């Protein structure tokens, strides 16, 4: 009965003490790591007045005594705690060694003074499992951008864990849409739907922590396959014609993970070429290319299963024109009697245009000059002297222009000969007669005097000092050895006595007089005709 009353009193005191007791224990809770040692401190700095100090424990069901320290009777330890606990006789600190999980709970401390005043306080202890084995795992070994939903699980050992995720150094936060986070006791799940290539290159780390400890996972990467993105053909444009055999190629690129594979198409038809570069050599090996055709490349990513085509580039392959030559006559050509045909050919290349020039100017058709339908030859019939000259034929295509020349020599003449020189000289005067006659090849000249051949063989006949017997007829004969034609011209010379030519009117004056007389005569005739028309003639009837 006494005991019961005492217990009730203690409980009553305890309730009072609880309310006033926090000046004997600090605020809790206290966290401690499993297996480690712990001291539960009181707030006493010096030895208080006490007859008993009592530590008890409530693990959730019933309170049990841990240890009681009597000022005179000494320490009494609950057998369950034997060897693990001690109470400092000076300040009442409770020491607990080798903490167990079951030590988690409420500890109460009661101090009974020598006067029987009792104070009680409580403090909560949490024994935490250490944080360990923090690992990030993915439910997928690799992912496909936009398609995959990736779930990363961070698991850890430990108690009272909280998890944080980081991408490189930036915290990952749930956005309620693509990114969701779900925490459980010993794991956290990060779910990324429609994953992007940038989401998980991180590296991603997960940190598990409790009050006392934290541990971070090893960096985690997940390969997110993507692409091919925009597929680019280079060069994006090309000339319409590419010179056959030249160093031309198309290259295709696309950003893609893993790297894309490339196949090529000509006019939408796949042709047997793969790889990022399509060379002209491959195009030519795989057939013509002589028409303007469209080339595209298609990039394919085997992981994402996506294929993307480039824009098209169009061109044709063309051979350069080479080996141009003119085939012309190899016989002697004579004006008025020859016909010629010049034809122009190339040994290689596709000729698109043919142009003929003579002495640098375009050749035009005429009644004597006709072009063949394809302009590859010209025919001149009959040949005339003005047809002689340098003929050039130009063969061109969009790649290049090649040309050849032919020098055409047209033999003709001599044309009518002319002698220029004095007609009358005084004795001892010099005489110089010049004969000319246009001719190809140049004519050979011979001179005759009064019908007798002279030794002179040039175009000029000279007499240093004239004598009377030089008077007579000088005939120049111009002869063309190729045409066989000869032209002659006779010139009269008279040698007169000294002074005979000084007087008299000059040739100019004589000409002036003659003209004046003619003009006067014409005026007179004109007047007469005029008068005849104006004056009415009487009818004879
Ligand atoms: C008890 O606590 C006092 C004061 O803090 C200290 O000096 C003393 O060494 C402690 N006693 C034991 C047995 O630990
Ligand atoms: C993650 O990826 C980055 C970039 O590809 C690389 O530099 C890093 O070494 C990777 N880390 C791990 C743990 O695979
Ligand atoms: C072809 O062109 C490329 C790039 O212009 C150059 O690197 C290469 O040496 C060239 N090859 C030949 C055979 O000229
Ligand atoms: C990705 O998603 C698209 C559209 O939903 C689908 O057509 C495609 O087959 C998917 N790709 C892969 C590799 O699963
Ligand atoms: C023109 O040619 C014909 C035949 O070749 C020849 O008989 C004739 O003599 C020639 N005439 C001239 C002026 O050369
Ligand atoms: C010139 O000769 C060639 C070959 O003999 C012939 O094919 C061509 O038609 C001739 N040209 C003309 C304009 O007659
Ligand atoms: C040449 O002929 C002319 C006229 O026909 C004559 O006057 C002259 O005496 C002749 N000269 C000679 C050297 O024969």
TrEMBL record:
Transmembrane parts of this sequence: 509-531
InterPro entries membership: Ig-like_dom, Ig-like_dom_sf, Ig-like_fold, Ig_I-set, Ig_sub, Ig_sub2, IgSF_CEA-related
Which superkingdom heads the taxonomic lineage of this protein's source?
Eukaryota
Q: Which UniProt keywords apply?
A: Disulfide bond, Glycoprotein, Immunoglobulin domain, Membrane, Signal, Transmembrane, Transmembrane helix
Where does the Ig-like domain lie? Answer: 130-217, 228-309, 319-411, 414-494
Q: Where is the signal peptide?
A: 1-21
Pfam families in the cross-refs: I-set (PF07679), Ig_2 (PF13895), Ig_3 (PF13927)
The UniProt entry, under PANTHER family, shows: CARCINOEMBRYONIC ANTIGEN-RELATED CELL ADHESION MOLECULE 5 ISOFORM X1, CARCINOEMBRYONIC ANTIGEN-RELATED CELL ADHESION MOLECULE 8
Task: Give the protein name, as stated in the record.
Answer: Ig-like domain-containing protein
Provide the species name.
Scophthalmus maximus
Gene designation: si:ch211-264f5.6
């Amino acid at each position: 009965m006494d005991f019961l009353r005492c217990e009730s009193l203690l409980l009553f005191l305890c309730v009072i003490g609880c309310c006033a007791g926090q000046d004997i224990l600090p605020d809790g809770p206290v966290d401690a790591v499993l297996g480690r040692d712990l001291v539960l401190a009181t707030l006493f700095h010096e030895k208080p007045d006490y007859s008993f100090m009592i530590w008890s424990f409530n693990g959730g069901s019933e309170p049990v005594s841990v240890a009681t320290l009597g000022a005179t009777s000494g320490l009494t330890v609950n057998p369950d705690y034997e060897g693990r606990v001690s109470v400092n006789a000076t300040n009442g600190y409770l020491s607990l060694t080798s903490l167990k999980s079951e030590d988690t709970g409420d500890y109460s401390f009661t101090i009974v003074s020598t006067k029987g005043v009792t104070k009680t306080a409580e403090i909560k202890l949490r024994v935490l499992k250490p944080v360990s084995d923090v690992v990030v795992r993915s439910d997928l070994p690799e992912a496909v951008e936009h398609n995959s939903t990736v779930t990363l699980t961070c698991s850890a050992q430990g108690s009272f864990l909280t998890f944080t995720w980081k991408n490189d150094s930036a915290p990952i936060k749930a956005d309620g849409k693509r990114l969701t986070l779900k925490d459980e006791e010993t794991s956290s799940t990060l779910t990324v739907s429609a994953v992007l290539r940038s989401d998980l290159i991180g590296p991603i780390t997960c940190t598990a922590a409790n009050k006392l400890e934290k541990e971070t996972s090893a960096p985690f990467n997940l390969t997110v396959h993507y692409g091919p993105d925009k597929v680019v053909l280079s060069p994006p444009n090309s000339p319409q014609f590419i010179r056959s055999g030249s160093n031309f190629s198309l290259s295709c690129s696309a950003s893609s993970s893993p790297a894309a594979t490339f196949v090529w198409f000509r006019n939408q038809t796949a042709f047997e070429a793969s790889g990022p570069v399509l060379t002209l050599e491959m195009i030519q090996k795989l057939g013509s290319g002589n028409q303007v055709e469209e080339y595209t490349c298609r990039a394919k990513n085997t992981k994402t299963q996506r294929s993307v085509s480039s824009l098209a580039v169009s061109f044709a392959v063309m051979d350069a024109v080479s080996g141009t030559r003119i085939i012309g006559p190899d016989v002697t050509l004579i004006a008025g009697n020859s016909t010629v045909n010049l034809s122009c050919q190339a040994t290689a290349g596709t000729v698109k245009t043919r142009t003929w020039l003579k002495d640098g100017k375009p050749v035009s058709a005429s009644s004597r000059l006709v072009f063949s339908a394809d302009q590859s030859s010209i025919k001149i019939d009959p040949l005339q002297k003005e047809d002689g000259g340098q003929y050039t034929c130009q063969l061109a295509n969009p790649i290049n222009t090649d040309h050849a020349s032919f020098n055409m020599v047209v033999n003709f003449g001599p044309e009518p000969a002319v002698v220029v020189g004095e007609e009358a000289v005084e004795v001892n005067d010099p005489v110089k007669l010049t004969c000319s006659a246009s001719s190809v090849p140049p004519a050979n000249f011979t001179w005759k005097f009064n019908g007798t051949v002279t030794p002179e063989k040039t175009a000029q006949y000279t007499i240093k000092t004239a004598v009377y017997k030089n008077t007579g007829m000088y005939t120049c004969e111009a002869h063309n050895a190729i045409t066989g034609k000869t032209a002659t011209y006779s010139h009269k010379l008279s040698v007169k006595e000294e002074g005979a030519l000084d007087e008299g009117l000059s040739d100019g004056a004589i000409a002036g007089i003659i003209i004046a007389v003619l003009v006067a005569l014409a005026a007179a005739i004109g007047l007469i005709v005029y008068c005849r028309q104006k004056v009415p003639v009487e009818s004879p009837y």
